[in-house]
Amino acid sequence: xxxxxxxxxxxxxxxxxxxxxxxxxxxxxxxxxxxxxxxxxxxxxxxxxxxxxxxxxxxxxxxxxxxxxxxxxxxxxxxxxxxxxxxxxxxxxxxxxxxxxxxxxxxxxxxx
Length: 112
Hints:
Layout: H1 17-24, H2 30-38, H3 40-60, H4 68-75, H5 81-93, H6 95-110
Helix pairs in contact: 1-3, 2-3, 4-6, 5-6
């Protein structure tokens, strides 16, 4: 199954919706970047995808995130060693959990 081409492309080559979504998510290449300069429709679609992604991340981030208790266990060094690497990887990509971890670290320092 292939992803559909953007139906409103005004520049050649027409872009696949998946390429526009990937660009909105930070993946890019020079051909797509140039296409977006020339095609206002695709540039608008990328902006829409970015807005939707930001909305979803702000509302659904806890669906795939560790609990606050697990984050606190990480701060206190009580997280099982088998989970530390996956937590650190998640924290590197999740601004919400990284912010919560900073807050928990500060609270832990104040109460120590």
